[in-house]
Amino acid sequence: MFAAVPSATLIGVDGLTVRVEVHVTTGLPQFSIVGLPDASCREAKDRVRAAFSSSGLAWPQKRVTVNLAPTGQRKIGSGLDLPIAVATLVAAGQLPAEAVTDCGFIGELGLDGSVRRVDGTVALAAAIGAGAVVVGRDAAAEAAVVGRPRVLAASSLRQVVAALRGDDGWSPVPALPAPSRPAGEGDLCDVRGQPLGRLALEVAAAGGHHLLLVGPPGAGKTMLARRLPGLLPDLGPDDAFEVTRIHSAAGLRLPAGVMVTRPPFRAPHHTASTVSLVGGGTARMRPGEISCAHRGVLFLDELAEFPADVLDTLRQPLEEGRVLVCRARAAVSFPARFLLVAATNPCPCGGDGSPGGCRCSEASRTRYAARVSGPLLDRFDLRVGVERPDVTDLIAPAGARPPGESTSTVAGRVARARQQAADRGVASNAEIPAARLDDLAPLSPSGRRLLEVRLRQGRLSARGLHRVRRVARTLADLQGGPGPIDEEAVHAALALRAEPFTFEVVAS
Amino acid sequence: MTASATGSGGWRLAQGAYAGALAALPGMGPATLCALLERGAPADIWDSVRRGEIVRPPARGSSGGAGPRLSWAAAAAGAPLERWWDAWQRRGIGVTWPADPRYPRRLLSDPEPPGVLFWRGDLGRLESRCVAVVGTRRCSPDGRASAYDLGRDLAGAGVCVVSGLALGIDGAAHLGALDAPGAPSGTGSTVGVAASGVDVAYPARHAALWERVAAAGAVVSETPPGRPAQAWRFPARNRVIAGLVDMVVVVESHVTGGSLITADKAIDRGVEVRVVPGPVHAPFAAGSNQLLYDGPGPVRDAADVLDALGLVDHRPRRSGRRRPAPVARPEQLRLDPARPAPPPSAGGPAPPQSCSDDPPSSPPPPSVGPELRSPRPLGRPDGPHGEVLEAVGWRPTSLGRIVERAGRPVGSVGRILEELAAQGLFTEDRGWWQRTAGGGGRRE
Ligand SMILES: [Zn+2]
Questions:
Q1: Which among A355, A395, A487 is the nearest to B429, CB-wise?
Q2: Which tops the pLDDT comparison, B325 or B202?
Q3: Where do the domains of chain B lie, and which CATH numbers do they carry?
Q4: Contact at 8 Å (CB) between B177 and B189?
Q5: Which of A28-37, A200-209, A497-506, B19-28 is predicted with the least confidence, judged by mean pLDDT?
């Protein structure tokens, strides 16, 4: 007897439809799986047989052959356990073929017969062409965010069989709570002082400008960076689904409402491997941290401590918004369009980098700065010094200084500024092509004069000029004034692009 | 003592009520008050005053023609003693005088002791190791940071930080002490010595600070509650600070600063004085640097102070060498030859001295007649340029810090900095701004 049921496997973050075909023929009892199963997929044999036995199902004492089509593509993971089990039951005549019509299956089987969630459920469910899909109860909400096919949930193989036979019902799919803002993001109004850091966050959020924070340990660089996602608008439906699909594939904990509706914040440590950062892996191609930060913020603390080859791999995603991970057999492209925020000490001694405020030798400072390549540094439209809070601020009597603006106030301005960029026809001001700057970011005469002076003095490079003009555009948008960009916006843009390390390495 | 001192209500009050009332008599100064209180119990002395047996001494000097002088007997007859006492008690204000066991031990041997001290909080703090951190009201951000760090780290080491509750250095030292981590009581020990009454916060901006200091330590004053400070009270207050501590640390002082008086009084008393060195061109450090040049040794931070006090040095020296601790020898030091030495604790109130740092909130009464110099005008440009000028330190200062201090938009600060740099008021070194001597010289 022959049976086939639809299922899916994960390639990177994309689901690939798989047809699970099972032949049960007379002959010596044997169980084989063909069609490029990977190691975990081949182990399905043991899990499925054990699940049969603990579910009180009889394993056919015949020759059982499983074929996973299309045969040219490697099948990865344990999500094919459930479809293999169900197809075997149909092929062995223990389930009527009509029971599985127009129904796909995704799930790992435990030795006790339980049906479990697998990573990438969102992408897998989306790849099922049938009208319904059976998943583990713990994956039901995740599968349901796709909206199609209909989700049928069960906690065990025994329940799947009973429900398909009509002897028992499916488990209810849990209703999704409304998406909520993740707690613990931190509000901007908690930030004491740091006017430059605050402004940089606002500009980064409004214009999509990558941001480098330079300052001594304890200055609050991480605290500032964590407040950036809160300034970004909610993800649109398409982006939210894409990000949810990536997070599901990466096995990240999904929010209560399953759908990731807020821009993510990822902060990999500098000791993280290239694979965990960029993606790849030996068992299957997992998305890396930079893809988990897709449509959100990637925060690299201690930038200079990251290995140079790891930082080098950021160049492609920063340019294309995707990263291509190549392995011997396959190449997988992951989405990776993120806002890059990095932090670094000005020098290795832990000082603030001021003249006279540092104990490093010139040579050790130079070595430290050289760890971050010029091309990567050049990507940061915003480079801002951050310092430990000023005593003046600690002393100011209550009420003498108004408390800092809250995240929601700034986020409102950011949303309006982003709308202005959208009206201009660009995704963000950071992406205004150099050739269109005169058209989209015209300067007032005084602003133009200021930049000319800086260029003549050699304090601004030609490439730096474009970046300063884009940032000035964003600053002007945030202020909301009409007309060409005024001198103070240009001054502010220049102030927000300081030399990150206070010596000449970068200028070359 | 069987004489029954009675208020108009007819019942006898605690001795503190009478001591406080004596301090509130018109024209009363510390020396007179001390001499009076040596005669016996405050209640008995009060009775004598009421009966006209003790009369107001004639005004010293020839500042006549200042209107009729109120006699002590008349003043005492009209004094609502129980109402005062009741109000003081309700506000947690205590009164102590030399014969009272709570009177600070150090002041018992002081050449110019306060006759009466009013206090809020815990007067016992003054019996522990005490260090005064004092300086100018118009200080630099760096000085403020030094004072804050000194306050925090000294209090963290268990030292009681004494200061004058003023703006600038004083306030920063108190705040640092309040923020001391790891201090036994959760907040560091600090005592504020006020020139006004302990319940009259001056400056008003520091009202919250006064409350915190009173809660974490104590606020003390010679001035009766409810009264603003007269001009002569500021230098007089400074001598109390000098008398209460083991060491006076001057952080920043203009050449006419009141903290120089504190240092002077400390040297008179054999109390060690130390100075935090300041930039040589900076007007706000001209007085403290002169003091440093005259003899007292420098300190950089709390570790240096603890070291000089003979307490444990908390951390390894930043360099291998140890400095021999210079000790100020009082008899060798004459801080300011131009300023006559005060008369050694004769009768009468402390001689009035001008104190440009601490302008009083009310004009002084004619009887004491101090010459109060009005605060010197700040010789800085008006408006935004002045704010930015003020925000840049004499040490390299980052743009972010300048923006933070000036409280102006980044773009505006950037433009003004560049304009002022063109005038030679600043130098910029790879993103760090610094005032130049030329700019400072023009300023004051
Ligand atoms: Zn260094």
A1: A355
A2: B202
A3: 11-57+73-115 (no CATH), 122-314 (3.40.50.450), 367-444 (1.10.10.10)
A4: yes
A5: A497-506
* Interchain CB contacts (distance < 8 Å): A and B: 102
Q: Which CATH superfamily is domain A183-392+403-495 in?
A: P-loop containing nucleotide triphosphate hydrolases (3.40.50.300)
Cβ distance B400 to A354 less than 8 Å, yes or no, reads no
Segment 364-393 of chain A within 8 Å of chain B by CB: 384-387, 390-393
Among candidates B145, B206, B396 on the partner chain, residue whose Cβ is nearest the Cβ of A357: B396
CATH fold of the domain at A2-165: Ribosomal Protein S5; domain 2 (3.30.230)
Question: Contacts of residue A196 in chain B, CB cutoff 8 Å?
Answer: 399-400, 403-404, 410
Would you list the domain boundaries of chain A?
Answer: 2-165, 183-392+403-495
Closest CB from A199, A400, A401 relative to B410: A199
HEC string of chain B equals CCCCCCCCCCCCCCHHHHHHHHHCCCCCCHHHHHHHHCCCCHHHHHHHHHCCCCCCCCCCCCCCCCCCCCCHHHHHHCCCHHHHHHHHHHCCEEEECCCCCCCCHHHHCCCCCCCCEEEEECHHHHHCCEEEEECCCCCCHHHHHHHHHHHHHHHHCCCEEEECCCCCHHHHHHHHHHCCCCCCCCCCCEEEEECCCCCCCCCHHHHHHHHHHHHHCEEEECCCCCCCCCCCHHHHHHHHHHHHCCEEEECCCCCCCHHHHHHHHHHHCCCEEEECCCCCCCHHHHHHHHHHHHCCCECCCHHHHHHHCCCCCCCCCCCCCCCCCCCCCHHHCCCCCCCCCCCCCCCCCCCCCCCCCCCCCCCCCCCCCCCCCCCCCCCCCCHHHHHHHHHCCCCCEEHHHHHHHHCCCHHHHHHHHHHHHHCCCEEEECCEEEECHHHHHHHC
Q: What is the pLDDT of residues A85-106, one digit of tens each?
A: 999 999 999 999 999 999 999 9
Q: Residue A412 has what pLDDT?
A: 93
Confidence tier at A264 by pLDDT (50, 70, 90): very high
ipTM confidence score:
0.79
Q: Do B405 and A356 touch (CB under 8 A)?
A: no
User: Which pLDDT belongs to residue B121?
Assistant: 94
